[in-house]
Amino acid sequence: MGNFSVIQSIKSILAFLDALITPNTPLTAIDKKIIDLGMPARSGVSAQRVATNIINRKSEAGIPAVPSEQDLRMERIRVECMLEELQKYAKVEVVIPRNSISVTVYTFTPAGATPIGFGVNDIEYVGIAKGAGFIR
């Protein structure tokens, strides 16, 4: 009976530590309008910009503000490798959920536009849509 309580205590401690390391906080939703407006203004990722930001932030961490030439080159290489990995191997899949597209078909009469039909996508569409988004 004593071994069981020790194992339970260890499991509790491990679960607590795991929750500290990887908190289960859901991502906040991004409004579709923000994505649509923000995407054309974005320049894309830049290894030079990321490396510069890392080097500049080192002074905040107490690392000497004047980096060596080797440090500058190494930061650039690190960032280029990370971005290259994302650009070559990351996958973004767009899924249009069932019933998310609704269509109204109109006919034009002397009285004006008159709806004559309605429809929705009754299956999901995967891989045939083009879209925009943010890497999170």
Describe the structure.
The longest helix is centred in the middle third of the chain and has 21 residues, at 69-89. 44% of the residues lie in helices and 15% in strands. The chain has a two-stranded antiparallel sheet with strand order 1-4. It has a two-stranded antiparallel sheet with strand order 2-3. The chain has helices spanning 2-21, 32-38, 47-58, 69-89; strands at 95-96, 102-109, 112-120, 125-126. It folds into two domains: 2-90, no CATH class; 91-136, no CATH class. With 136 residues, it is of the alpha+beta class. β2 and β3 form a beta hairpin.
The averaged pLDDT comes out at 75
Order of strands across the widest beta sheet?
A: 1-4
Strand content: 15-25%
Could you give the count of β-strands? Answer: 4
Structural class based on helices, strands and sheet pairing: alpha+beta
Q: Whole-number radius of gyration? A: 26 Å
What's the SSE pattern? HHHHEEEE
Overall number of structural domains: 2
Question: Main β-sheet, in a few words?
Answer: 2 strands, antiparallel
| Approximate helicity band | 40-55%
How many helices in DSSP terms?
Answer: 4
- Terminal-residue CA separation: 47 Å
**Are there runs of 5+ residues with pLDDT below 50, and where?**
none
Shape: flat
